[in-house]
């Protein structure tokens, strides 16, 4: 689905931003519209995705994992094999090439798990741009390795101590920076969230995941998958893999939110499951909020899913019933993390582990004539300290 001219997917989306940002958003809408129809720009994006990122990422049949569940066959879309180890770089390649085309020399970004920050710092270094990344204090603690990687790449990492010190607070500070320095600064949003045109633009850059996966599954199995499963925080990897399958009604699409300590605990990040519509970070979408409309604090063991909102297109797809959204708890995600490590020799990101939980549940009730495709959105090296903490072990 394409948003309308105001950036709405049905009732969701829009641009709820300070008046000072409207000219910058209008400039971005015009620039992206022109670039997306420019064959030279699209060729340049494709060149970097192929020769720098390493695309296409493969589809892998997880034979041991599938046989262990005793049911359907599970396939993995290996976004963890991209340069920098996650799907995030697909979008940063596109946005930073657009920033350069617009004459912007300073880049700001926010990050939770650090994967978007690392990807932004990486492409900024390659293109010779100044890069500032905002990151919550709690996420800096959880993702120390990625903070060091960003600094090695020349980025300035700004600690955000307000609120819960997580992704929501980092995004607030990045938007304030953008408002202050809008003349020379391009804001690289890492998810399908934020004001129009970001949800559409990020989806377009990430839809390379689903376009490749659709073609690869047809070639590998002779048909489309029965299920496509992906984790949902802000929702970029899931929107990227879902989008090219939306018209294939025989393909069931499942998004998995962070169930944290359980929905009854109140310690989770599941706006599509238990939230209600409201405005956050420039768009109208489902979000976690209290009875007064104030944004709720959220929690997940996965820093990348620890966000109270979600992209507006996901909200539209939820209401339309095209995508089923569910949750996986921290405990289930950790079990899935260990399961993939031990059956396939792959350390998945904790974000991706949430999607694996649902894939395993489905595989146990479906016979082996069914195929399940999981978006393995990132690798788990960044999460080993968190996993070790969960196991009660201290890394030397």
TrEMBL record:
Record's function text: The beta subunit is responsible for the synthesis of L-tryptophan from indole and L-serine.
Ranges where the Tryptophan synthase beta chain-like PALP domain occurs: 54-378
Reactions accelerated catalytically: (1S,2R)-1-C-(indol-3-yl)glycerol 3-phosphate + L-serine = D-glyceraldehyde 3-phosphate + L-tryptophan + H2O
Subunit structure: Tetramer of two alpha and two beta chains.
EC numbers, comma separated: 4.2.1.20
InterPro entries, A to Z: Trp_synth_b_CS, Trp_synth_beta, Trp_synth_beta/beta-like, TrpB-like_PALP, TrpB-like_PALP_sf
Pfam family, one: PALP
Alphabetical list of NCBIfam families matching this protein: trpB
HAMAP family: Trp_synth_beta
Protein name per UniProt: Tryptophan synthase beta chain
Phylogenetic lineage: Bacteria, Bacillati, Bacillota, Clostridia, Eubacteriales
PROSITE patterns in the record: TRP_SYNTHASE_BETA
Essential cofactor(s): pyridoxal 5'-phosphate
Family recorded in the similarity comment: Belongs to the TrpB family.
Keywords tagged on the record: Amino-acid biosynthesis, Aromatic amino acid biosynthesis, Lyase, Pyridoxal phosphate, Tryptophan biosynthesis
Native species: Desulforamulus reducens (strain ATCC BAA-1160 / DSM 100696 / MI-1)
Protein's UniProt keywords contain Transmembrane helix: no
Gene Ontology cellular component list: cytoplasm
Recorded metabolic or biological pathway in which this protein acts: Amino-acid biosynthesis; L-tryptophan biosynthesis; L-tryptophan from chorismate: step 5/5
Residue numbers of N6-(pyridoxal phosphate)lysine PTMs: 88
Keyword Lyase: yes
One term of GO molecular function: tryptophan synthase activity
């Amino acid at each position: 689905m394409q948003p309308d001219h105001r950036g709405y997917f049905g009732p969701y989306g829009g641009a709820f931003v300070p008046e000072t940002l409207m000219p910058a958003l209008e400039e971005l809408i015009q620039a992206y519209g022109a670039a997306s129809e420019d064959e030279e720009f699209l060729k340049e994006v494709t060149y970097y995705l192929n020769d720098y990122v390493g695309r296409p990422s493969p589809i892998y049949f997880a034979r041991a994992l599938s046989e262990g569940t005793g049911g359907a066959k599970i396939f993995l879309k290996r976004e963890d094999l991209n340069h920098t180890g996650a799907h995030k770089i697909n979008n940063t390649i596109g946005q930073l090439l657009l920033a350069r085309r617009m004459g912007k020399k300073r880049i700001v970004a926010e990050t939770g798990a650090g994967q978007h920050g690392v990807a932004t710092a990486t492409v900024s270094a390659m293109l010779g741009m100044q890069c500032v990344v905002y990151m919550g204090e709690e996420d800096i603690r959880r993702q120390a390795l990625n903070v060091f990687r960003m600094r090695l790449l020349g980025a300035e990492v700004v600690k955000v101590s307000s609120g819960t010190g997580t992704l929501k607070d980092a995004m607030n500070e990045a938007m304030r920076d953008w408002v202050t320095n809008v003349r020379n600064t391009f804001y690289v949003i890492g998810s399908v969230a934020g004001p129009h045109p970001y949800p559409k633009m990020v989806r377009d850059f990430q839809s390379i995941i689903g376009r490749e996966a659709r073609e690869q599954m047809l070639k590998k199995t002779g048909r489309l998958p029965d299920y496509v499963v992906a984790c949902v925080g802000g929702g970029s990897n899931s929107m990227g893999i879902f989008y090219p399958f939306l018209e294939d009604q025989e393909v069931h699409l499942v998004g998995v939110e962070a169930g944290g300590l359980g929905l009854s605990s109140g310690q989770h990040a599941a706006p599509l499951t238990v939230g209600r519509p409201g405005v956050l970070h420039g768009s109208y979408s489902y979000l976690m909020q209290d009875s007064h409309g104030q944004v709720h604090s959220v929690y997940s063991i996965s820093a990348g899913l620890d966000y109270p909102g979600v992209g507006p297109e996901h909200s539209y797809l939820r209401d339309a019933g095209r995508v089923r959204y569910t949750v996986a708890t921290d405990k289930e995600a950790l079990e899935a993390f260990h399961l993939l490590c031990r059956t396939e020799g792959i350390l998945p990101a904790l974000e991706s582990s949430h999607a694996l939980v649902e894939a395993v549940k489905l595989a146990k009730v479906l016979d082996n004539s069914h195929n399940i495709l999981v978006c393995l959105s990132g690798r788990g090296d960044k999460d080993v300290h968190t996993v070790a903490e969960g196991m009660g072990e201290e890394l030397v």
